[in-house]
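ARCHIVE CARD
CATEGORY: sequence design from structure
SOURCE FIELD: tokenized fold
FIELD CONTENT:
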């Protein structure tokens, strides 16, 4: 009945490959705190990719602006997230 339709999981495998590679790399972070830091960077990279934002442009923006939030607790750190960066900088490099 379903002879012409073959199951193919290449798409799914390609989507989860970075997670599997990351899991293997986290074993060699050195300590728990370094592994958490690596996970944060991987997460931000994923957010940039999902939002269509160039990771390097966002990271430069983030590092240039993070210290504005050191002592002013009324500011929301969410303003520095990639999707908000895209809204604030419409002329940023968009990934194809």
């Amino acid at each position: 009945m379903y002879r012409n339709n073959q199951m193919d999981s290449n798409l799914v495998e390609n989507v989860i490959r970075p997670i599997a590679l990351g899991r293997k790399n986290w074993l060699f972070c050195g300590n728990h705190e370094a592994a958490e830091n690596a996970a944060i960077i991987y997460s931000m990279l994923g957010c940039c990719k999902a939002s269509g934002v160039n990771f390097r442009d966002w990271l430069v923006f983030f590092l240039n602006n993070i210290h504005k939030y050191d002592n002013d607790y009324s500011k929301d750190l969410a303003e520095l997230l990639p999707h908000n960066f895209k809204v604030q900088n419409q002329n940023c490099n968009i990934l194809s």
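CARD ANNOTATION: Residues 10-88 form one domain. The helical segments are 10-26, 32-51, 55-65, 82-88.
SHELF: design records, drawer C
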